[in-house]
Design a protein that fits this description.
Layout: E1 2-6, H1 26-37, H2 41-46, H3 50-54, H4 56-74, E2 89-92, H5 96-103, H6 109-127, E3 132-139, H7 142-151, E4 155-161, E5 164-170, H8 171-179, E6 185-190, H9 203-213, E7 224-226, E8 233-234, H10 237-247, H11 254-264, E9 268-271, H12 277-285, E10 290-293, H13 300-310
Parallel strand pairs: 1-2, 1-9, 2-7, 9-10
Antiparallel strand pairs: 3-5, 3-6, 4-5, 7-8
Helix pairs in contact: 4-5, 4-6, 5-6, 6-9, 9-10
Length: about 300
């Protein structure tokens, strides 16, 4: 059984969309979406530098657009749910959940891009109130690390499994963490994000996103949709949207998502563009599961072979 996953913020790199523009129709579609959300996705995906695409309000729609472009190139949309090449389940990490919702047929492309644009703007505004950030803890016992983070006033914002937890909080709290690592943690790595996402610092963004969600007309997912909230599958489009709203200020439980993949019988995991992060976690947490990260169109043939073998 094949699981299709979409990465979250931090996966973007300068120019990563450039090779995708060589595929027929991709540039036109990106320009159409750019008009919908008033953001030049082509520029930011090809010519912008690392600082420009680190901006939350830019990074989030850029990642969703990239994921949808690569999903379309694969023919992995919910419209193909009855076809032999349909994935058995879909999930996304953080903002990647919006990509997954569109792939599953819960949201239209335009709805997904409009929602993520508002999400990015609201989270950027919330992040500007206090200087905050996120750092990844590599290694260590999860229970020991979580207790240590709480002692420092930090939130375990992403519990990713495979020995990785991401802490979020003020820059002062993160500096204290760098000086005082939990027992067993090999390394603390500051992430290239501009806020303490999935924490109480994002409370104002939840209200803004709830208001934006009123404009949506969600359909029930046509593919099995696995939620970051608790790793459970969700069969109602309305509940998917409710979870997308609340998840902004609550921890991502990717560890539980991967447990659900196992329960569903996963044999292969394919990560949409810009792939790499989630396949890395899967290689450590899901032994025996084949993985493939979509980085450029050169990876499409291998991805299609994987889909044919495991869907």
């Amino acid at each position: 059984m094949l699981v299709l996953v979409a990465p979250g913020q931090g996966a973007q790199t300068p120019g990563f969309l450039t090779p995708w523009l060589d595929l027929p129709g991709v540039e036109a579609r990106l320009r159409a979406w750019s008009e919908v959300i008033d953001l030049d996705l082509v520029h930011y995906g090809t010519n912008a530098d690392a600082d420009e695409i680190r901006d939350t309000a830019v990074a989030q729609p850029l990642l969703v657009a990239a994921g949808l472009v690569s999903a379309m190139a694969l023919g992995a949309y919910a419209s193909a749910a009855d076809a032999a090449g349909a994935p058995g389940a879909v999930a996304g990490h953080s903002v990647g959940e919006i990509t997954a919702a569109a792939v599953a047929g819960v949201l239209s492309e335009d709805e997904a891009l409009a929602l993520v644009r508002k999400r990015g703007l609201a989270m950027a505004e919330a992040a500007a109130v206090t200087a905050t950030g996120m750092s990844a803890l590599l290694g260590g016992d999860p229970d020991v690390s979580v207790a240590h983070l709480e002692k420092l006033g930090l939130t375990p914002a992403n519990i990713n499994g495979a020995g990785q937890i991401v802490a979020a909080g003020t820059l002062e709290q993160l500096a204290a963490l760098a000086e005082d690592k939990p027992e067993g943690v090999r390394k603390v790595v500051a992430l290239k994000v501009a806020g303490a996402f999935h924490t109480h610092h994002m409370g104002p963004a939840v209200d803004a996103l709830a208001e934006a969600a009123k404009e949506l007309s969600p359909a029930d997912p046509k593919l099995t949709y696995v939620s970051n909230k608790d790793g459970r599958t969700v069969a109602s489009g309305g509940e998917v949207v409710d979870r997308l709203v609340g998840q902004v200020a609550n921890p991502v439980r990717w560890d539980l998502c991967m447990e659900t993949f196992q329960e569903l019988g996963v044999t292969a995991l394919l990560e949409l563009c810009p792939g790499g992060t989630l396949t890395g976690l899967a290689k450590r947490a899901l032994p025996g599961v084949k993985t493939l990260a979509l980085k450029t169109p050169d990876d499409l043939d291998a991805a299609r072979e994987l889909i044919a073998e495991h869907s």
